[in-house]
Each structure stands twice: as structure tokens, then as C-alpha cells.
């Protein structure tokens, strides 16, 4: 698909875990302001794809550029890049020893060098935005999964990232908590955030995504508009996959 | 019984010698142990190698041999220091290997997602370690670090053999003066107990204060 103003570009990316070829010649461009949903069977390499974009995983060959800059090697440059790429994990990963407010403020102070009260003010704004202003002084373990994930989103947004990566943000949640997280993500999409979202939530894909990328066995097999993909999948792998997830 | 009252100043001198050795060596061991533990989990391969070599060499060398190496070896390279300083170097380096491993096992109890979240926010390796990983590792490393420092206090006795003033060494003078060897050693043992129990008490307080799981 032609993308007008590319923010993230992956060119011929290959990644191995030992013998396992997890990412095979991945070519993917994500435009500024675009919301791209990545979907596919378990083990197809979706998480790995997300993690290579902020170099939590290194790649064996190919190039990844963000806003025209190739991903730097380990060190200061890489840290600076990661600050611009927000990431939300399936398991939330809030800092267990810090309050909700301190979770959102920590990297603003350490990385963005904001003063503590300025960081806290920004944190409270963001907590307000995700509907958790009243929970600021609690510890993560005192919150429900849905609340923890919304704090994690606020924590990533606090860095004013250029793009947000979501790796199955609702998969670890009880069903009644999924919507509160999806609503925050919907709002983010409406506000024009560039987002890469690994999810099987088709409602979200249909209403918020510009494109759906279907992955299987480490390859991007389809890359299409959501309605096209869900109504007329082209590949057998996608048809098979959709028939399985549509059953329940 | 008289052995203590008659020779109180000798005992006191030895006791303070052991306290001094223990305190300075502990500080050196904690600093080096912290540094080496950071090396061992660093993203840079050469640092990890330095950490691994440091731990492997020091943990597997008998402490007495290390004393010989430091006391006889360093002067060969033109480094001439008081014996007490050499003893602190030998004890501190030796113990740092154990501190390093205690810290590293504590670091390994912290879920990897914590470090990943910190790095994904743009925090450096050092920031991730000091503000996210170590504070959570801290409570699990209090007991093993305490045991390691108690072992250090007792190991400091080896310095006596290298004419550093310390508690165990006082027995030589006392037995030459003809005092009952049993009582001489009883009082020496009491001296060590005071030091080791103080260390345990200190670490118990730390554990009570910080060891609570959230
Ligand atoms: N750290 C790792 N070491 C070895 N193999 C891994 C590692 N992480 C993931 N894998 C393997 O890579 C493949 C892709 O994993 P992943 O990207 O997590 O898939 P998905 O998120 O689509 O379920 C799987 O077969 C998985 O077992
Ligand atoms: Mg996954």
C-alpha cells in the first residue's frame, strides 16, 4: 500500500531465534497518523515485530527507520529513540515498587529531564485523560488489570511519543475490562496518534484501523483496509484464521 | 577469667582492628560487588566478560592465597602500602565476588518486563538498574548480603597471620604471657560474636524496614 508520509519503515527485515526464522523479509510502512492493526495466529511473530521496532529485539538483516532515522545501536541514541516510541505490553509491566503517579512521572524526570512537579502535573493530566485521576497514590497491585493497562498507556504517553506500539493490550484482561482500555485507544486514534496495535479485537480494528496486516509464520501475508480484509480475505491462511476467531 | 581484665587494652586493640578491617572491607566489597553485578547484567559483552572473570577468579581462589598474592605481589609492581590496607584490598575484592552474585541473583528475581518497560521509555541501562530493577531486588538481597558480610568479619582473622592487628592475633601474645588458652579463646570468640551479631541485627532491621512485599 502506498503511504503518503512514512513514519516507520521496515525493509527486508529478517530475525532469527537460533534456528527459528521468526521474521521473514518483512516490508512494512506505517504513515504518520495511521492506525495499523496486526493480526495473526499465536507464534506468527507479531510480538517480535513490535519489539524490533524499538529494538527490544535486534534484527539479523534489513533496515528499520523511524522518522527517516535508522535505528541506532545500543547506547544514548537508542535510548532517545525509545523515548519517542511508546510501548504498551500485554502484561502491563507497571513498576511494582512505585505509585501510579510515580510510574507515569519517572521517565519524564529521568529521560525528558522535567522537574518533578512539572512531571507530576503532566502525569495527573494524563491520568485524568484515562479516567484514573483518583488512583494516583495507589500501587499497581491495588488496581484492576484494566486500570493498570490504562496507567501503562498514560505512562507511555507522558513521553510525548511519535508512535505507540500496543502488543495485545487487552489479552490479559477479564472481558468486562477490555472496553475501558479499547475506549482509551479509540480516543487516542481519533486524536491522530500513529499506532501499531497487535490485537484480535475486531471491533477495534473495524472502527479505528486504517489498515490490517495479517501475519503468519513470520511473514506479512495481507495488508489491506479492515473491511476488505474481514469481508474478503484473500489468502487461505487468513480465511482459516478468521473462521476460527469468528466462531466465538 | 583474669585474662580479659588484665589485658583489656590488648583485647580492645584487637577488637577494634577487626572492626576496622570488617567495616572498610565491607564498604569496598559492596562498591565493587555492585559494580561487578552491573557489569554482569550489562548489554555490553566486554563488561559482562570482565564481571564473569572477576567473580570466577576471586570466588575460586583460597583467601589465604589471595592475601599472599596481594601482600607479596603488589609491592613487586611498586605499590607499597600499609599491611592493613593490603588486607582490606584482599578481603574486599574476595568478598565482592560473593556480593556480586547475591545482587545478581536478586536482580534475576525481578521480572524481565520491569526492565523492558523502563528501557522502552528511553531509560538508560544505568537508570533502569538503579531506579527500577535494584530497588525491587533490594529486599531479596538483604539476607544473603548480610551472611556474606558476617563471613567477611570472620575471614578477617586471616589478616592476623600477616601481622595486621586484629582480634584473633591477640592469642599469640596472651599465650606467650602464660594465660589459660581456653579462656583466651573464649573471650576472642565473644569479640567475634559481638561483631557478627551486630551485623545480623543491622540486616534484620533493614529486612523489617524494606523487606515487605508490596
Ligand atoms: N525470546 C525468545 N527466544 C526464542 N524464541 C522465541 C522468543 N520469543 C519468541 N520466540 C518464538 O518466536 C515465535 C514468534 O513469537 P511471537 O513474536 O511472540 O509471536 P506472537 O506474538 O505472534 O504470538 C514463536 O514461535 C515463539 O516461540
Ligand atoms: Mg505475542
TrEMBL record, chain A:
A Pfam family the protein falls into: ABC_tran
Gene3D superfamilies linked to this entry: P-loop containing nucleotide triphosphate hydrolases
Primary localization class, coarse: membrane
SUPFAM superfamilies linked to this entry: P-loop containing nucleoside triphosphate hydrolases
Protein name according to UniProt: ABC-type polar-amino-acid transporter
GO molecular function: ATP binding; ATP hydrolysis activity; ATPase-coupled polar amino acid-transporter activity
SMART domains in UniProt: AAA
Keywords: Amino-acid transport, ATP-binding, Cell membrane, Membrane, Nucleotide-binding, Transport
Domain ABC transporter: 8-242
EC id: 7.4.2.1
Database matches in InterPro entries: AAA+_ATPase (IPR003593), ABC_ATPase_HisP-typ (IPR030679), ABC_transporter-like_ATP-bd (IPR003439), ABC_transporter-like_CS (IPR017871), MetN_ABC_transporter-like (IPR050086), P-loop_NTPase (IPR027417)
Taxonomic superkingdom: Bacteria
Catalytic activity: a polar amino acid(out) + ATP + H2O = a polar amino acid(in) + ADP + phosphate + H(+)
Membrane topology value: Peripheral membrane protein
Family per record: Belongs to the ABC transporter superfamily.
A GO-annotated cellular component: plasma membrane
Subcellular location field: Cell membrane
TrEMBL record, chain B:
InterPro entries found in the cross-reference section: AA_ABC_transptr_permease_3TM, ArtM/GltK/GlnP/TcyL/YhdX-like, MetI-like, MetI-like_sf
Domain of life: Bacteria
Membrane protein topology class: Multi-pass membrane protein
Coiled-coil zones: none
Keywords: Amino-acid transport, Cell membrane, Membrane, Transmembrane, Transmembrane helix, Transport
Pfam families reported for this sequence: BPD_transp_1 (PF00528)
GO molecular function, one term: transmembrane transporter activity
Subcellular location: Cell membrane
Transmembrane residue ranges: 21-41, 53-72, 79-99, 181-206
Gene Ontology CC terms, in alphabetical order: ATP-binding cassette (ABC) transporter complex
Start and end residues of each ABC transmembrane type-1 domain: 15-203
GO process annotations (BP): amino acid transport
Family to which the UniProt record says this protein belongs: Belongs to the binding-protein-dependent transport system permease family. HisMQ subfamily.
Protein name: Amino acid ABC transporter permease
Species in which this protein is naturally found: Streptomyces inusitatus
Amino acid at each position: 500500500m502506498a503511504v503518503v508520509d512514512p513514519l516507520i519503515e521496515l525493509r527486508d527485515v529478517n530475525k532469527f531465534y537460533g534456528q527459528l526464522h521468526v521474521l521473514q523479509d518483512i516490508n512494512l510502512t506505517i504513515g504518520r497518523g495511521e492506525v495499523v492493526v496486526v493480526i495473526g495466529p499465536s507464534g506468527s511473530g507479531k510480538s517480535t515485530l513490535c519489539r524490533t521496532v524499538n529494538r527490544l529485539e535486534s534484527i539479523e538483516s534489513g533496515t528499520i527507520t523511524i522518522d527517516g532515522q535508522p535505528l541506532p545501536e545500543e547506547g544514548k541514541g537508542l535510548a532517545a529513540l525509545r523515548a519517542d516510541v511508546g510501548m504498551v505490553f500485554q502484561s502491563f509491566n507497571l513498576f511494582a515498587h512505585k505509585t501510579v503517579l510515580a510510574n507515569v512521572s519517572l521517565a519524564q524526570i529521568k529521560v525528558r529531564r522535567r522537574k518533578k512537579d512539572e512531571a507530576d502535573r503532566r502525569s495527573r493530566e494524563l491520568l485524568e485523560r484515562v479516567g484514573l485521576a483518583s488512583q494516583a497514590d495507589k500501587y499497581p497491585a491495588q488496581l484492576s488489570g484494566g486500570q493498570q493497562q490504562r496507567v501503562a498507556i498514560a505512562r507511555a504517553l507522558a513521553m510525548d511519543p511519535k508512535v505507540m506500539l500496543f502488543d495485545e493490550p487487552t489479552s490479559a484482561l477479564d472481558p468486562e475490562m477490555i472496553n475501558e482500555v479499547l475506549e482509551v485507544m479509540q480516543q487516542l486514534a481519533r486524536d491522530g496518534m500513529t499506532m501499531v496495535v497487535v490485537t484480535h479485537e475486531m471491533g477495534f480494528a473495524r472502527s479505528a484501523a486504517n489498515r490490517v496486516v495479517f501475519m503468519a509464520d513470520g511473514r506479512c501475508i495481507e495488508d489491506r483496509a479492515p473491511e476488505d480484509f474481514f469481508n474478503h480475505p484473500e489468502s487461505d491462511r487468513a480465511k482459516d484464521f478468521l473462521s476460527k476467531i469468528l466462531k466465538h | 577469667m583474669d585474662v580479659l581484665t588484665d589485658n583489656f587494652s590488648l583485647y580492645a586493640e584487637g577488637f577494634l582492628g577487626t572492626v576496622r578491617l570488617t567495616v572498610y572491607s565491607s564498604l569496598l566489597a559492596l562498591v565493587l560487588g555492585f559494580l561487578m553485578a552491573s557489569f554482569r547484567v550489562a548489554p555490553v559483552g566486554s563488561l559482562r566478560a570482565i564481571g564473569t572473570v572477576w567473580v570466577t577468579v576471586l570466588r575460586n581462589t583460597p583467601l589465604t592465597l589471595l592475601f599472599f598474592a596481594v601482600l607479596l605481589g603488589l609491592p613487586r609492581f611498586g605499590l607499597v602500602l600499609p599491611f592493613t590496607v593490603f588486607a582490606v584490598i584482599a578481603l574486599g575484592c574476595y568478598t565482592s565476588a560473593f556480593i556480586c552474585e547475591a545482587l545478581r541473583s536478586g536482580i534475576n528475581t525481578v521480572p524481565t518486563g520491569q526492565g523492558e518497560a523502563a528501557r522502552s521509555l528511553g531509560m538508560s541501562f544505568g537508570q533502569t538498574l538503579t531506579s527500577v530493577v535494584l530497588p525491587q531486588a533490594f529486599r531479596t538481597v538483604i539476607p544473603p548480603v548480610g551472611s556474606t558480610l558476617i563471613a567477611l568479619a570472620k575471614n578477617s582473622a586471616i589478616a592476623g597471620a600477616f601481622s595486621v592487628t586484629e582480634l584473633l592475633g591477640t592469642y599469640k601474645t596472651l599465650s606467650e604471657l602464660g594465660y589459660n588458652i581456653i579462656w583466651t579463646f573464649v573471650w576472642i570468640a565473644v569479640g567475634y560474636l559481638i561483631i557478627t551479631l551486630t551485623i545480623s541485627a543491622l540486616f534484620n532491621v533493614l529486612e523489617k524496614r524494606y523487606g515487605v512485599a508490596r
